[in-house]
Amino acid sequence: MKMTYYPGCSLQGTARDYNDTILEVCQTIGVELNEIEDWNCCGASSAHMTNHEVAMRLSIRNLLLAAKSSDNVLIPCSACYQRLKAADKALREDPEYWDVTDYNPDFKLVHISTFLAEPEILELIADKVIQPVGKMKVACYYGCLSLRPPHITDAPNHEMPTTLENIVTAIGADPVSWSHKTECCSGSLTMTRPDIAGKLVGEIVEAARRGGATAMVTDCPMCQANVESRQELPPGASMVVYYATELIAAALTGSYPEKQQKVHLVPAHALQAHMERSAHNVGTASGSTTETTSQKEESA
Amino acid sequence: MQNSPISPAKGSRKLLKKLSSRDIDVQTCYQCNRCSAGCPVADYFDLQPMEIVRLASYGMEDQLLASSTIWLCASCDTCATRCPNDIDITALMDVLRELALRKDIPPAVPQVPAFHASFLESVRRWGRTYEIGMIGAYKLRSGDYAGDMKLGISMLAKGKLSLLPHSIEGKPEIREIFAGKGKEYER
Ligand code: SF4
Ligand code: SF4
After folding, report:
1. Above 0.95 for ipTM, yes or no?
2. Closest CA to A108 of A76, A145, A70
3. How many CB atoms lie within 10 A of CB A16?
4. Are the C-beta atoms of residues A65 and A36 closer than 8 Å to each other?
5. A162 C-alpha to center of ligand 1: Å?
6. Looking at chain B, which residue has its C-alpha nearest residue A56?
7. Ligand 1 contact via B93 beta carbon (within 6 Å)
8. How far is it, in rounded angstroms, from Cα B168 to Cα B127?
9. What is the pLDDT of residues A137-151, one digit of tens each?
10. Nearest to A50 among B80, B98, B151 (CB)
11. CA Rg, chain B, in Å?
12. Which residues on A lie below 8 Å from B178 (Cβ)?
Protein backbone atom coordinates (compact mmCIF):
# COMPACT_ATOMS: atom_id res chain seq x y z
CA MET A 1 0.00 0.00 0.00
CA LYS A 2 1.21 3.49 -0.84
CA MET A 3 0.44 6.67 1.04
CA THR A 4 1.50 10.28 0.80
CA TYR A 5 3.04 11.46 4.07
CA TYR A 6 2.87 14.86 5.74
CA PRO A 7 5.03 14.63 8.90
CA GLY A 8 4.74 18.27 10.04
CA CYS A 9 7.29 20.32 11.98
CA SER A 10 6.97 18.68 15.40
CA LEU A 11 8.02 15.35 13.93
CA GLN A 12 11.24 16.94 12.78
CA GLY A 13 11.89 18.56 16.15
CA THR A 14 10.56 17.69 19.58
CA ALA A 15 8.82 14.56 18.26
CA ARG A 16 11.54 13.18 15.99
CA ASP A 17 11.31 9.84 17.76
CA TYR A 18 7.57 9.71 16.95
CA ASN A 19 8.48 10.03 13.27
CA ASP A 20 11.10 7.26 13.55
CA THR A 21 8.60 4.82 15.03
CA ILE A 22 5.96 5.66 12.41
CA LEU A 23 8.43 4.94 9.61
CA GLU A 24 9.50 1.74 11.34
CA VAL A 25 5.93 0.48 11.83
CA CYS A 26 4.85 1.34 8.29
CA GLN A 27 7.89 -0.37 6.82
CA THR A 28 7.25 -3.52 8.84
CA ILE A 29 3.62 -3.81 7.77
CA GLY A 30 4.36 -2.93 4.16
CA VAL A 31 2.99 0.58 3.85
CA GLU A 32 5.11 2.76 1.59
CA LEU A 33 5.17 6.40 2.72
CA ASN A 34 6.05 9.11 0.23
CA GLU A 35 6.77 12.37 1.99
CA ILE A 36 5.29 15.44 0.29
CA GLU A 37 8.16 17.16 -1.41
CA ASP A 38 9.03 20.57 0.04
CA TRP A 39 6.06 20.69 2.40
CA ASN A 40 5.73 23.72 4.65
CA CYS A 41 4.52 24.29 8.20
CA CYS A 42 0.72 24.24 8.50
CA GLY A 43 0.93 27.32 10.75
CA ALA A 44 -0.59 25.32 13.62
CA SER A 45 -2.55 27.18 16.26
CA SER A 46 -0.60 30.41 15.92
CA ALA A 47 -1.66 31.03 12.32
CA HIS A 48 -5.35 30.25 12.59
CA MET A 49 -5.60 32.07 15.92
CA THR A 50 -4.24 35.31 14.52
CA ASN A 51 -4.43 35.31 10.73
CA HIS A 52 -7.11 33.39 8.89
CA GLU A 53 -5.77 34.03 5.39
CA VAL A 54 -2.22 33.01 6.18
CA ALA A 55 -3.44 29.90 8.00
CA MET A 56 -5.57 28.78 5.06
CA ARG A 57 -2.98 29.51 2.40
CA LEU A 58 -0.18 27.73 4.25
CA SER A 59 -2.27 24.56 4.32
CA ILE A 60 -3.48 25.05 0.76
CA ARG A 61 0.10 25.03 -0.50
CA ASN A 62 0.61 21.62 1.13
CA LEU A 63 -2.62 20.26 -0.30
CA LEU A 64 -1.73 21.33 -3.82
CA LEU A 65 1.64 19.60 -3.46
CA ALA A 66 -0.08 16.47 -2.12
CA ALA A 67 -2.56 16.53 -5.01
CA LYS A 68 0.23 15.58 -7.43
CA SER A 69 -0.64 12.04 -6.34
CA SER A 70 -3.99 10.44 -5.71
CA ASP A 71 -2.73 8.38 -2.73
CA ASN A 72 -4.35 9.05 0.62
CA VAL A 73 -2.41 11.43 2.85
CA LEU A 74 -1.26 10.13 6.22
CA ILE A 75 -1.01 12.85 8.90
CA PRO A 76 0.40 11.96 12.33
CA CYS A 77 0.07 15.35 14.05
CA SER A 78 -3.35 16.31 15.37
CA ALA A 79 -2.88 20.03 14.75
CA CYS A 80 -1.64 19.50 11.19
CA TYR A 81 -4.52 17.11 10.59
CA GLN A 82 -7.13 19.62 11.72
CA ARG A 83 -5.59 22.50 9.73
CA LEU A 84 -5.21 20.47 6.52
CA LYS A 85 -8.75 19.09 6.85
CA ALA A 86 -10.16 22.60 7.28
CA ALA A 87 -8.33 23.80 4.18
CA ASP A 88 -9.28 20.70 2.18
CA LYS A 89 -12.97 21.25 2.93
CA ALA A 90 -12.86 24.96 2.12
CA LEU A 91 -11.00 24.29 -1.10
CA ARG A 92 -13.34 21.57 -2.30
CA GLU A 93 -16.29 23.83 -1.60
CA ASP A 94 -15.00 26.91 -3.36
CA PRO A 95 -11.56 26.65 -4.97
CA GLU A 96 -11.97 29.93 -6.81
CA TYR A 97 -12.23 31.89 -3.58
CA TRP A 98 -8.72 30.66 -2.79
CA ASP A 99 -7.39 31.40 -6.27
CA VAL A 100 -7.24 27.75 -7.25
CA THR A 101 -8.75 26.86 -10.61
CA ASP A 102 -9.63 23.28 -9.89
CA TYR A 103 -9.42 21.13 -6.80
CA ASN A 104 -11.05 17.76 -6.56
CA PRO A 105 -8.40 15.18 -5.69
CA ASP A 106 -9.33 11.54 -5.07
CA PHE A 107 -7.34 11.32 -1.88
CA LYS A 108 -8.54 11.39 1.66
CA LEU A 109 -6.66 12.98 4.52
CA VAL A 110 -6.19 10.27 7.12
CA HIS A 111 -5.21 10.77 10.73
CA ILE A 112 -2.71 8.23 11.96
CA SER A 113 -4.87 6.51 14.58
CA THR A 114 -7.84 6.21 12.24
CA PHE A 115 -5.48 4.54 9.80
CA LEU A 116 -3.80 2.20 12.28
CA ALA A 117 -7.16 1.20 13.79
CA GLU A 118 -8.57 -0.04 10.47
CA PRO A 119 -9.27 -3.75 10.87
CA GLU A 120 -6.95 -4.80 7.99
CA ILE A 121 -4.09 -2.74 9.38
CA LEU A 122 -4.64 -4.04 12.91
CA GLU A 123 -4.47 -7.54 11.51
CA LEU A 124 -1.20 -6.79 9.74
CA ILE A 125 0.19 -5.44 13.01
CA ALA A 126 -1.07 -8.35 15.12
CA ASP A 127 0.49 -10.81 12.64
CA LYS A 128 3.92 -9.24 13.03
CA VAL A 129 4.01 -8.90 16.82
CA ILE A 130 7.16 -10.52 18.16
CA GLN A 131 6.59 -9.63 21.79
CA PRO A 132 3.28 -8.25 23.15
CA VAL A 133 3.68 -5.34 25.56
CA GLY A 134 2.18 -7.42 28.31
CA LYS A 135 -1.04 -6.18 29.87
CA MET A 136 0.38 -2.76 30.64
CA LYS A 137 -2.47 -0.59 31.94
CA VAL A 138 -2.56 2.47 29.73
CA ALA A 139 -4.75 5.55 29.55
CA CYS A 140 -5.32 6.39 25.88
CA TYR A 141 -5.21 10.14 25.50
CA TYR A 142 -6.51 11.90 22.37
CA GLY A 143 -6.56 15.57 23.29
CA CYS A 144 -8.46 17.91 21.00
CA LEU A 145 -7.45 18.51 17.47
CA SER A 146 -7.77 15.16 15.74
CA LEU A 147 -11.37 15.06 17.00
CA ARG A 148 -12.77 18.55 17.20
CA PRO A 149 -14.67 20.16 15.66
CA PRO A 150 -16.22 17.02 14.15
CA HIS A 151 -17.55 18.82 11.08
CA ILE A 152 -13.91 19.46 10.15
CA THR A 153 -12.22 16.30 11.46
CA ASP A 154 -14.97 13.84 10.45
CA ALA A 155 -14.20 11.94 13.66
CA PRO A 156 -17.13 9.56 14.19
CA ASN A 157 -16.88 9.30 17.99
CA HIS A 158 -15.46 12.63 18.94
CA GLU A 159 -16.61 12.52 22.57
CA MET A 160 -15.76 8.83 23.07
CA PRO A 161 -13.19 7.72 20.53
CA THR A 162 -11.79 4.17 20.60
CA THR A 163 -9.11 4.05 17.89
CA LEU A 164 -6.16 4.20 20.31
CA GLU A 165 -7.78 1.59 22.57
CA ASN A 166 -8.17 -0.75 19.59
CA ILE A 167 -4.56 -0.20 18.57
CA VAL A 168 -3.02 -0.84 21.99
CA THR A 169 -5.23 -3.90 22.54
CA ALA A 170 -3.87 -5.42 19.32
CA ILE A 171 -0.36 -5.37 20.77
CA GLY A 172 -1.31 -6.75 24.15
CA ALA A 173 -1.70 -3.63 26.32
CA ASP A 174 -4.70 -3.11 28.55
CA PRO A 175 -6.49 0.23 28.03
CA VAL A 176 -8.23 1.57 31.14
CA SER A 177 -11.55 3.37 31.27
CA TRP A 178 -10.98 6.95 32.36
CA SER A 179 -12.56 10.39 32.31
CA HIS A 180 -10.15 12.76 30.56
CA LYS A 181 -9.27 11.15 27.25
CA THR A 182 -10.51 14.03 25.12
CA GLU A 183 -9.82 16.88 27.56
CA CYS A 184 -7.59 19.74 26.43
CA CYS A 185 -4.05 19.89 27.93
CA SER A 186 -3.68 23.54 26.77
CA GLY A 187 -0.62 22.79 24.68
CA SER A 188 -1.05 26.09 22.84
CA LEU A 189 -0.51 27.95 26.14
CA THR A 190 2.39 25.89 27.42
CA MET A 191 5.09 28.46 26.59
CA THR A 192 3.13 31.53 27.58
CA ARG A 193 1.10 30.34 30.58
CA PRO A 194 2.89 27.34 32.08
CA ASP A 195 0.72 27.84 35.19
CA ILE A 196 -2.45 27.02 33.22
CA ALA A 197 -0.78 24.15 31.36
CA GLY A 198 0.48 22.79 34.69
CA LYS A 199 -3.01 22.79 36.17
CA LEU A 200 -4.69 21.11 33.20
CA VAL A 201 -1.91 18.55 32.81
CA GLY A 202 -2.10 17.83 36.54
CA GLU A 203 -5.81 17.09 36.27
CA ILE A 204 -5.32 14.83 33.27
CA VAL A 205 -2.50 12.83 34.87
CA GLU A 206 -4.48 12.54 38.08
CA ALA A 207 -7.48 11.22 36.13
CA ALA A 208 -5.30 8.67 34.33
CA ARG A 209 -3.97 7.46 37.67
CA ARG A 210 -7.51 7.25 39.10
CA GLY A 211 -8.44 5.12 36.11
CA GLY A 212 -5.69 2.71 37.09
CA ALA A 213 -3.14 3.53 34.38
CA THR A 214 0.60 3.24 34.83
CA ALA A 215 1.31 5.07 31.58
CA MET A 216 -0.42 7.23 29.00
CA VAL A 217 -0.51 6.64 25.25
CA THR A 218 -1.20 9.37 22.73
CA ASP A 219 -1.05 10.17 19.02
CA CYS A 220 -0.54 13.91 19.44
CA PRO A 221 3.02 15.29 19.53
CA MET A 222 1.97 18.46 21.35
CA CYS A 223 0.07 16.55 24.01
CA GLN A 224 3.03 14.23 24.48
CA ALA A 225 5.49 17.08 25.04
CA ASN A 226 3.10 19.15 27.13
CA VAL A 227 1.89 16.38 29.43
CA GLU A 228 5.40 15.06 30.06
CA SER A 229 6.95 18.45 30.63
CA ARG A 230 4.26 20.14 32.72
CA GLN A 231 3.81 17.56 35.45
CA GLU A 232 4.69 19.21 38.73
CA LEU A 233 5.36 15.88 40.41
CA PRO A 234 8.49 14.28 41.82
CA PRO A 235 10.10 12.11 39.08
CA GLY A 236 9.05 8.92 40.87
CA ALA A 237 5.39 9.96 40.79
CA SER A 238 5.28 11.30 37.24
CA MET A 239 3.53 9.52 34.40
CA VAL A 240 5.20 8.69 31.12
CA VAL A 241 3.40 9.43 27.84
CA TYR A 242 4.20 7.05 24.98
CA TYR A 243 3.35 7.52 21.35
CA ALA A 244 1.05 4.77 20.13
CA THR A 245 3.60 3.89 17.43
CA GLU A 246 6.34 3.67 20.05
CA LEU A 247 4.39 0.83 21.66
CA ILE A 248 3.70 -0.83 18.31
CA ALA A 249 7.36 -0.59 17.27
CA ALA A 250 8.39 -2.20 20.56
CA ALA A 251 5.91 -5.04 20.07
CA LEU A 252 7.01 -5.52 16.44
CA THR A 253 10.73 -5.61 17.22
CA GLY A 254 10.44 -7.31 20.61
CA SER A 255 12.49 -4.67 22.38
CA TYR A 256 12.24 -1.16 23.73
CA PRO A 257 15.65 0.40 23.15
CA GLU A 258 17.41 2.35 25.89
CA LYS A 259 18.02 5.18 23.41
CA GLN A 260 14.28 5.64 22.93
CA GLN A 261 13.64 5.60 26.68
CA LYS A 262 16.12 8.41 27.19
CA VAL A 263 14.20 10.77 24.91
CA HIS A 264 11.39 10.99 27.44
CA LEU A 265 11.41 13.85 29.91
CA VAL A 266 10.14 11.57 32.69
CA PRO A 267 11.28 8.02 33.55
CA ALA A 268 10.05 5.71 30.77
CA HIS A 269 10.99 2.22 31.93
CA ALA A 270 7.39 0.97 32.41
CA LEU A 271 7.18 -0.38 28.86
CA GLN A 272 10.45 -2.29 29.07
CA ALA A 273 9.46 -3.79 32.42
CA HIS A 274 6.14 -5.00 31.01
CA MET A 275 7.76 -6.47 27.94
CA GLU A 276 10.29 -8.35 30.03
CA ARG A 277 7.57 -9.68 32.29
CA SER A 278 5.47 -10.74 29.33
CA ALA A 279 8.49 -12.43 27.68
CA HIS A 280 9.16 -14.27 30.92
CA ASN A 281 5.54 -15.40 31.19
CA VAL A 282 5.45 -16.59 27.60
CA GLY A 283 8.70 -18.44 28.22
CA THR A 284 7.61 -20.18 31.44
CA ALA A 285 3.85 -20.70 31.14
CA SER A 286 2.59 -23.07 28.50
CA GLY A 287 -0.63 -21.22 27.63
CA SER A 288 -0.95 -17.65 26.44
CA THR A 289 -0.61 -14.98 29.11
CA THR A 290 -3.45 -13.01 27.67
CA GLU A 291 -5.89 -15.80 28.20
CA THR A 292 -4.81 -16.57 31.75
CA THR A 293 -5.17 -12.96 32.81
CA SER A 294 -8.57 -12.46 31.28
CA GLN A 295 -9.82 -15.69 32.79
CA LYS A 296 -8.62 -14.53 36.17
CA GLU A 297 -10.46 -11.26 35.71
CA GLU A 298 -13.63 -13.05 34.78
CA SER A 299 -13.58 -15.31 37.80
CA ALA A 300 -12.79 -12.40 40.14
CA MET B 1 -19.38 42.41 32.79
CA GLN B 2 -20.93 44.47 35.63
CA ASN B 3 -20.18 48.01 34.49
CA SER B 4 -20.29 47.51 30.79
CA PRO B 5 -23.28 49.07 29.07
CA ILE B 6 -24.58 46.82 26.34
CA SER B 7 -26.85 48.09 23.69
CA PRO B 8 -27.33 47.47 19.99
CA ALA B 9 -26.98 51.20 19.45
CA LYS B 10 -23.36 51.04 20.62
CA GLY B 11 -22.48 47.92 18.68
CA SER B 12 -20.19 47.69 15.69
CA ARG B 13 -22.13 46.73 12.58
CA LYS B 14 -18.87 46.02 10.84
CA LEU B 15 -18.04 43.33 13.38
CA LEU B 16 -21.46 41.73 12.91
CA LYS B 17 -20.96 41.71 9.14
CA LYS B 18 -17.53 40.17 9.54
CA LEU B 19 -18.96 37.40 11.72
CA SER B 20 -21.73 36.60 9.30
CA SER B 21 -19.23 36.48 6.42
CA ARG B 22 -17.41 33.75 8.36
CA ASP B 23 -20.72 31.92 9.08
CA ILE B 24 -20.49 32.56 12.81
CA ASP B 25 -24.13 32.99 13.71
CA VAL B 26 -23.95 34.50 17.20
CA GLN B 27 -27.62 35.53 17.07
CA THR B 28 -28.81 31.97 17.52
CA CYS B 29 -27.32 31.73 21.04
CA TYR B 30 -30.00 30.97 23.65
CA GLN B 31 -27.59 31.13 26.57
CA CYS B 32 -27.62 27.56 27.68
CA ASN B 33 -24.02 28.05 28.88
CA ARG B 34 -22.79 24.70 27.65
CA CYS B 35 -19.85 26.48 26.06
CA SER B 36 -18.61 27.96 29.36
CA ALA B 37 -19.37 24.80 31.29
CA GLY B 38 -17.10 22.66 29.14
CA CYS B 39 -14.28 25.17 28.70
CA PRO B 40 -11.08 23.91 30.35
CA VAL B 41 -9.58 27.39 30.72
CA ALA B 42 -12.71 29.32 31.77
CA ASP B 43 -11.41 29.74 35.35
CA TYR B 44 -8.82 32.15 34.01
CA PHE B 45 -11.08 34.21 31.71
CA ASP B 46 -12.43 37.68 32.53
CA LEU B 47 -15.40 36.98 30.23
CA GLN B 48 -16.91 33.51 30.02
CA PRO B 49 -17.37 32.01 26.54
CA MET B 50 -21.14 32.57 26.76
CA GLU B 51 -20.54 36.22 27.65
CA ILE B 52 -18.24 36.56 24.64
CA VAL B 53 -21.01 35.25 22.38
CA ARG B 54 -23.57 37.52 24.01
CA LEU B 55 -21.39 40.61 23.63
CA ALA B 56 -20.64 39.62 20.05
CA SER B 57 -24.34 39.41 19.24
CA TYR B 58 -24.59 43.07 20.22
CA GLY B 59 -21.41 43.93 18.33
CA MET B 60 -19.70 45.15 21.52
CA GLU B 61 -16.28 45.24 19.95
CA ASP B 62 -14.38 47.34 22.48
CA GLN B 63 -15.17 45.10 25.43
CA LEU B 64 -14.40 41.98 23.43
CA LEU B 65 -11.08 43.11 22.07
CA ALA B 66 -9.87 44.25 25.50
CA SER B 67 -10.72 40.98 27.22
CA SER B 68 -8.19 38.45 28.48
CA THR B 69 -10.43 35.64 27.25
CA ILE B 70 -9.51 36.04 23.60
CA TRP B 71 -5.82 35.47 24.46
CA LEU B 72 -6.25 32.74 27.05
CA CYS B 73 -8.59 30.62 24.93
CA ALA B 74 -6.58 27.51 24.07
CA SER B 75 -8.52 26.91 20.86
CA CYS B 76 -9.51 23.41 21.94
CA ASP B 77 -12.86 23.54 20.11
CA THR B 78 -14.79 22.04 23.02
CA CYS B 79 -17.25 24.96 23.11
CA ALA B 80 -17.89 24.98 19.37
CA THR B 81 -18.34 21.21 19.32
CA ARG B 82 -20.87 21.22 22.16
CA CYS B 83 -22.91 24.30 21.22
CA PRO B 84 -26.41 23.04 20.41
CA ASN B 85 -26.80 25.86 17.91
CA ASP B 86 -23.56 25.14 16.07
CA ILE B 87 -22.07 28.51 16.85
CA ASP B 88 -18.40 28.32 15.96
CA ILE B 89 -17.14 30.01 19.12
CA THR B 90 -13.53 29.02 18.42
CA ALA B 91 -13.68 30.80 15.07
CA LEU B 92 -15.29 33.79 16.83
CA MET B 93 -12.22 33.92 19.11
CA ASP B 94 -9.99 33.77 15.99
CA VAL B 95 -11.80 36.73 14.44
CA LEU B 96 -11.57 38.76 17.65
CA ARG B 97 -7.84 38.07 18.08
CA GLU B 98 -7.10 38.99 14.49
CA LEU B 99 -9.11 42.19 14.79
CA ALA B 100 -7.41 43.15 18.07
CA LEU B 101 -4.01 42.75 16.41
CA ARG B 102 -4.98 44.70 13.29
CA LYS B 103 -6.37 47.50 15.43
CA ASP B 104 -3.33 47.54 17.72
CA ILE B 105 -5.46 47.08 20.82
CA PRO B 106 -3.11 46.52 23.78
CA PRO B 107 -3.52 42.81 24.51
CA ALA B 108 -4.64 41.86 28.01
CA VAL B 109 -2.15 38.97 28.01
CA PRO B 110 0.74 40.35 25.91
CA GLN B 111 2.95 37.27 26.02
CA VAL B 112 0.39 35.26 24.01
CA PRO B 113 0.46 37.39 20.84
CA ALA B 114 4.25 37.72 21.33
CA PHE B 115 4.50 33.94 21.15
CA HIS B 116 2.29 33.66 18.06
CA ALA B 117 4.30 36.39 16.33
CA SER B 118 7.58 34.58 17.07
CA PHE B 119 6.19 31.28 15.86
CA LEU B 120 4.91 32.78 12.63
CA GLU B 121 8.09 34.74 12.04
CA SER B 122 9.95 31.45 12.08
CA VAL B 123 7.51 29.97 9.56
CA ARG B 124 7.74 33.07 7.36
CA ARG B 125 11.55 32.91 7.33
CA TRP B 126 12.17 29.22 6.85
CA GLY B 127 8.87 27.71 5.70
CA ARG B 128 8.94 25.44 8.74
CA THR B 129 9.10 25.98 12.46
CA TYR B 130 12.58 26.46 13.87
CA GLU B 131 12.04 25.77 17.53
CA ILE B 132 15.20 27.22 19.02
CA GLY B 133 15.00 30.37 16.94
CA MET B 134 11.33 30.71 17.76
CA ILE B 135 11.83 30.32 21.50
CA GLY B 136 14.67 32.85 21.42
CA ALA B 137 12.54 35.35 19.52
CA TYR B 138 9.67 34.79 21.94
CA LYS B 139 11.89 35.44 24.95
CA LEU B 140 13.08 38.68 23.37
CA ARG B 141 9.61 39.89 22.49
CA SER B 142 7.97 39.00 25.75
CA GLY B 143 10.86 39.69 28.13
CA ASP B 144 9.94 36.39 29.76
CA TYR B 145 13.51 35.15 30.31
CA ALA B 146 13.25 33.44 33.65
CA GLY B 147 10.39 31.04 33.07
CA ASP B 148 11.13 27.72 31.49
CA MET B 149 14.86 27.89 30.89
CA LYS B 150 15.16 24.58 32.69
CA LEU B 151 12.68 22.93 30.35
CA GLY B 152 14.46 24.30 27.27
CA ILE B 153 17.79 23.00 28.53
CA SER B 154 16.45 19.53 29.29
CA MET B 155 14.81 19.38 25.84
CA LEU B 156 18.14 20.33 24.27
CA ALA B 157 19.92 17.66 26.30
CA LYS B 158 17.40 15.08 25.11
CA GLY B 159 18.11 16.05 21.51
CA LYS B 160 14.51 17.17 21.07
CA LEU B 161 15.34 20.58 19.65
CA SER B 162 17.21 20.82 16.37
CA LEU B 163 20.07 23.25 16.28
CA LEU B 164 19.61 24.19 12.64
CA PRO B 165 16.48 25.55 10.96
CA HIS B 166 14.64 23.35 8.46
CA SER B 167 14.51 25.49 5.40
CA ILE B 168 12.37 24.75 2.32
CA GLU B 169 12.78 25.51 -1.38
CA GLY B 170 9.44 27.25 -1.67
CA LYS B 171 10.34 30.13 0.66
CA PRO B 172 9.37 32.76 -1.92
CA GLU B 173 5.83 31.32 -2.00
CA ILE B 174 5.67 31.40 1.79
CA ARG B 175 6.78 35.04 1.79
CA GLU B 176 4.00 35.86 -0.68
CA ILE B 177 1.47 34.21 1.59
CA PHE B 178 2.66 36.31 4.51
CA ALA B 179 2.78 39.43 2.37
CA GLY B 180 -0.96 39.04 1.86
CA LYS B 181 -1.10 37.65 -1.67
CA GLY B 182 -4.72 36.73 -2.32
CA LYS B 183 -5.84 39.17 0.30
CA GLU B 184 -6.25 41.93 -2.26
CA TYR B 185 -10.02 42.06 -1.80
CA GLU B 186 -9.63 42.93 1.88
CA ARG B 187 -11.70 40.04 3.12
S1 SF4 C 1 -23.39 26.71 23.93
FE2 SF4 C 1 -24.04 27.91 22.15
S3 SF4 C 1 -26.19 28.41 22.55
FE4 SF4 C 1 -25.32 27.69 24.49
S5 SF4 C 1 -24.66 29.59 25.50
FE6 SF4 C 1 -22.89 28.82 24.39
S7 SF4 C 1 -22.98 29.87 22.41
FE8 SF4 C 1 -24.99 30.09 23.36
S1 SF4 D 1 -11.97 26.89 22.30
FE2 SF4 D 1 -11.38 28.40 23.85
S3 SF4 D 1 -13.29 29.15 24.71
FE4 SF4 D 1 -13.77 27.26 23.62
S5 SF4 D 1 -13.68 25.69 25.18
FE6 SF4 D 1 -11.65 25.76 24.24
S7 SF4 D 1 -10.45 27.21 25.50
FE8 SF4 D 1 -12.64 27.48 26.02
Report:
1. no
2. A70
3. 17
4. yes
5. 28
6. B177
7. no
8. 6
9. 999 999 999 999 999
10. B98
11. 19
12. 54
